[in-house]
UniProtKB/TrEMBL annotation:
Regions of compositional bias (Basic and acidic residues) in chain numbering: 1-15
InterPro entries: DciA-like
Span of the signal peptide: none
Residue ranges of the region described as Disordered: 1-39, 128-152
Compositionally biased tracts (Basic residues): 128-138
Protein name (record): DUF721 domain-containing protein
Taxonomic lineage from the root: Bacteria, Bacillati, Actinomycetota, Actinomycetes, Streptosporangiales
Length: 152
């Protein structure tokens, strides 16, 4: 009796065109996304960055994160990027000597950063030397500045 019912159900399904498949279903070529369907994480992040207009700041942050790979380990040991605004990259150096070195390499740095970020993204490199506060004033402070460059 169960076999008769199974045969009857198969015959009814065949009439409606809903027979079970014997071979596995093949996926359609290329990604297909309908509303609410999951998507790849990388694609979702790219879409989010594009929708919010965050592509350039994210790219600049990526370059800042790979600073040592871009400028080399020796220069990266003495400098670090601190900001990017209106095409200008602000770089802090740990001594006046390294600040001067970065100023001499500014044109090369602009070219290298534009290779990473896209032509015309960086127009200028601004270098900031070591930041020490104002000299203290008081009874026991001498009036002379002392020897020349004592920052390194």
């Amino acid at each position: 009796m169960a076999r008769e019912k199974l045969a009857q159900a198969k015959a009814d399904a065949a009439k409606r065109g809903q027979l079970p498949r014997r071979e596995p279903r093949r996926r359609a070529a290329g990604p297909r996304r309908e509303g609410g369907d999951p998507q790849l994480f990388g694609r979702a992040i790219r879409d989010l960055l594009s929708d919010r207009g965050w592509e350039r700041p994210a790219a600049v942050g990526g370059v800042f994160g790979r600073w040592a790979d871009i400028v080399g380990p020796e220069l990266a040991a003495h400098t670090k990027p601190e900001g990017f605004e209106d095409g200008e990259v602000l770089i802090a150096a740990d001594s006046t000597a390294w600040a001067t070195q970065v100023r001499l390499l500014a044109r090369t740095l602009v070219r290298r950063l534009n290779e990473e970020l896209g032509e015309g993204t960086v127009t200028r490199v601004k270098v900031k030397g070591p930041q020490h506060g104002p000299r203290p004033k008081g009874l026991r402070v001498t009036g002379s500045r002392g020897p020349g460059d004592t920052y390194g």
